[in-house]
Write a structure and sequence with these properties.
- The complex is a heterodimer.
- By secondary structure, chain A is an all-alpha fold.
- Helices cover 80% and strands 0% of the residues of chain A.
- Chain A is built from 13 helices and no strands.
- By secondary structure, chain B is α+β, with helices and mostly antiparallel strands.
- Helix content of chain B is 23%, strand content 31%.
- In chain B, the strands form four sheets. Chain B has a six-stranded mixed beta sheet with strand order 6-7-8-3-9-10, sandwiched between helices. In chain B, strands 13-12-11-14-20 form a five-stranded antiparallel beta sheet.
- Chain B starts with 21 loop residues before the first strand and ends in a 27-residue tail after the last strand.
- The chains are: A mainly alpha, B alpha+beta.
- The interface between A and B is medium-sized, with 21 and 30 residues.
Chain lengths: 265, 405
């Protein structure tokens, strides 16, 4: 005999349907517009075309290199600066760690525009090199890295494993490479993927600190919409989404796999 | 009567016999304002197994971490095989540490777990496989060498953790609650297993446990801690038969204790209850000498052999009310509360008595103490130093034993 869903399950399923509709309808609409010859006459009126995609790629293509370069720099910064910060926060090595942790969350609350303006004002010289863009995007990803990495780094099992490793003669570097990083590889990969996705798509803050030579993909998207052709912007958005969705899905799967491993240990 | 384990440190530094695997001298540790471990001194001879027991929060795990080098003492010194290791980092101490959770490295196979310390300590590559094999064979884990830790049972994980710790040939092996992560049904078998392993390894070992049965079964010597201080350190028989104070008797033997005073060669519990020292007192002359007239003492009544229950009054018996009954298979564990006799205003202590008969709570029975499991000991002297918890400051050995060499 199959069990009938309870009241709470119905509410949960209904919420899932609503959220799915809210997310999927705009995506479906964007796809339809992007393949329509003239969306002002209605979706798919006059057939289907890939021309907008070709034009969108002309705008986006040249930005792929700079975008990936900035993202790579952000990820390097995340590993070299944010990962040690997360370790220090997890192990309570930072005086006033709770306050520091709250401060790292501020970029979630402060508008990107405000952060961008503040950065641009703080060091105009650094702006031309693209360094400010990397610093700005690093600020944007810090809350996500802290949220994703501090809990696994604070895991008592990991702390105990590191202690055992030290009694077995492993110094700090060997412990990091052979115990800590393998233990957090899944949440680390998930966090870095999310950071990469955020960096690739970041526009609000970047708009104020980007030098012309380092304009990233979202700038091309912005240009596409400024042409007043909705179809071109939609095609650019779809291309953008196709590039980012796999990273976001992989990050989610890695995070889930990490949780499931922890439960089975 | 009080006997310190370690003589006070001389101005020229402590005299540390090279033969001792471990010497702690006045070791203390504070967490902020909390004194977790205070003034602990002990020696561990090579190949001996010492159980560190005490209630939760008494500082035993902290002491273990101080020995391992995972914490730095705020006072005192730690010597390992004659070397002053007080400020030595954990990775340089050559200690085998097996935590409660075993902390196997989940991404490494059993073999790689065991080999981890050898690589860390830069043992020549050619030598490592033989050392790993030796540790695996000792722990009977060879058939599981290529498995992942997640594919092992709790007992097997424990053996891998032991193999990993022993592979580096540690100066001291430290086991933190080694059996507590196992199901109760498995513990007895694993206890036997562990005892055999430790004997085969012939490694100086400290086992931290809050389970007195585990301590008595596995160790050559037992150190009892309370509120960060070492209360008594003795061999297994000494700690069982000659507790230095009621806390040790209650914690180690699960015994009940009754305060008493020596009057006319007997321990007087109250006006109508006297236990002759000839029957209940210590046999050793030095211990007996400590029980002179007027001396405060305490009576230890062990749950097995300490008292017998009778349905009617018999000579020397006291009335008691059954408070609680717990089945133990072929016998019953009864908690009985002594009833006042005549005008006695003494407290009404409770005793645990093992009986082959079940009795309902509320029933009145007669309890007679039996010298087989009841003994009288001189009460500890008034404290000379007081810890933040109000405890005595020095560990004592039972009065019939001298200072360890």
């Amino acid at each position: 005999m199959t069990r009938r869903p309870g009241h709470r399950e119905w509410v949960g399923q209904a919420a899932l349907v609503v959220v799915s509709v809210v997310v999927l309808v705009p995506i479906l609409g964007t796809v339809l517009v992007s393949v329509s010859p003239d969306a002002s006459r209605g979706p798919l009126v006059g057939g289907v075309t890939a021309d907008w995609y070709a034009m969108a790629w002309q705008l986006l293509g040249p930005k792929v290199g700079p975008t990936l370069g900035v993202t790579a720099a952000v990820l390097v910064g995340a590993v070299l600066v944010v990962l040690p910060l997360c370790h220090a926060l997890a192990r309570r090595l930072v005086p006033g760690g709770a306050v520091v942790r709250q401060v790292t969350m501020l970029p979630l609350a402060v508008p990107g525009v405000a952060l961008g303006l503040a950065l641009a004002a703080s060091d105009p010289g650094l702006r031309s090199s693209g360094g400010l863009l990397v610093v700005g995007q690093l600020l944007i990803v810090v809350p996500f890295l802290v949220a994703g990495l501090v809990p696994p780094l604070a895991d008592p099992d990991l702390v105990e494993a590191e202690r055992v490793a030290s009694t077995l003669g492993a110094g700090p570097t060997r412990r990091l490479l052979t115990v800590t990083l393998p233990a957090i590889r899944l949440p680390l990969a998930a966090s870095l993927l999310i950071a990469a996705a955020l960096s690739i798509g970041e526009f609000n803050l970047s708009f104020f600190v980007v030098p012309p030579a380092h304009q990233t993909a979202p700038f091309a998207l912005y240009s596409a919409f400024t042409t007043q052709r909705l179809e071109l912007g939609a095609a650019g958005s779809v291309l953008f989404g196709v590039a980012l969705v796999p990273a976001a899905v992989t990050a989610a799967l890695l995070a889930r796999s990490s949780l499931s491993r922890k439960e089975h240990r | 009567m009080t006997t310190l384990q370690i003589p006070p440190t001389e101005a020229s530094g402590p005299s540390v016999p090279v033969a001792d695997a471990l010497v702690l001298d006045g070791v203390g540790h504070r967490y902020g304002t909390t004194q977790a471990v205070a003034d602990v001194s002990l020696r561990l001879a090579p190949g001996r197994v010492l159980a560190l027991v005490g209630p939760s929060g008494c500082g035993k795990s902290t002491l273990l971490r101080l020995v391992a080098g995972l914490l730095t003492p705020s006072s005192g010194t730690v010597h390992l095989a004659g070397e002053d290791a007080t400020r030595l980092r954990a990775e340089r101490r050559r200690i085998g540490y097996v935590p409660q959770s075993y902390a196997l490295f989940p991404h490494l196979s059993v073999r790689d777990n065991v080999a981890y310390g050898l690589a860390s300590q830069k043992v020549p590559r050619a030598e490592r496989p033989a050392r790993v094999q030796e540790a695996l064979e000792l722990t009977r884990m060879t058939p599981y060498a290529d498995r992942a830790p997640s594919q092992l049972s709790g007992g097997q994980r424990q053996r891998v953790a032991l193999a990993r710790a022993l592979a580096v040939r540690p100066r001291v092996l430290l086991l933190d609650e080694p059996l507590s992560a196992l199901d109760p049904q498995l513990r007895e078998g694993m206890r036997r297993d562990l005892r055999g392993l430790l004997a085969a390894a012939d490694c100086s070992t400290i086992i931290v446990t809050h389970d007195q049965a585990e301590a008595l079964a596995l160790a050559d010597e037992v150190a009892v801690m309370r509120n960060g201080r070492l209360v008594q350190l003795d061999d297994v028989e000494g700690i069982w038969r000659r507790p230095v104070d009621p806390f040790v008797a209650e914690f180690v033997a699960g015994a009940a204790t009754l305060p008493a005073v020596v009057v006319d060669g007997a321990a007087r519990v109250d006006a109508d209850w006297h236990l002759p020292l000839d029957d209940f007192g210590p046999a050793a002359p030095s211990a007996r000498a400590a029980l002179s007239d007027g001396t405060p003492c305490f009576v230890v009544v062990r749950p097995v052999g300490g008292a017998s229950l009778h349905p009617a009054s018999v000579a020397g018996a006291r009335p008691a009310e059954v408070v609680d009954v717990e089945p133990r298979g072929s016998s019953w564990s009864l908690r009985v509360r002594l009833l006042p006799v005549g005008a006695s205003t003494a407290e009404r202590p409770e005793l645990t008595v093992t009986s082959t008969d079940a009795h309902l709570p509320g029933r009145t029975l007669w309890v007679r103490l039996d010298p087989e499991g009841t003994s009288v000991h001189a009460a500890p002297p008034a404290p000379t130093t007081t810890s933040p918890h109000g405890d005595r400051g020095t560990a004592r050995r039972s009065p019939t034993r001298g200072r360890r060499s």
